[in-house]
Specification:
The chain is mostly helical and 79 residues long. 70% of the residues lie in helices and 0% in strands. The chain has one domain: Flavinator of succinate dehydrogenase (DNA polymerase, domain 1). Helix 2 (13-26) packs across helix 5 and helix 3 packs across helix 5 (62-77).
Length: 79
Amino acid sequence: MNRMLWASRRGMLELDLVLEPFVRNCYAHLSEQDKQRYRSLVTCEDQDLFDWFLRKGQPDTDDHKLMVKKILSYALESR
């Protein structure tokens, strides 16, 4: 969990505000497959993540698309 929190800390505040709450509140409850998807997602470039979360683009892989969708859903529900 602490590793994922650390990996979720990015160079952009906007990403921190999306990723860190998701990890704190959802990561432990994800399936092992979704945990792997998340670990893969946080290896992506900040600018790509930023574009995906602002819906200016989509990830190339289905796994990343799924995680972006889950994270965005959580962010919208927790407002």
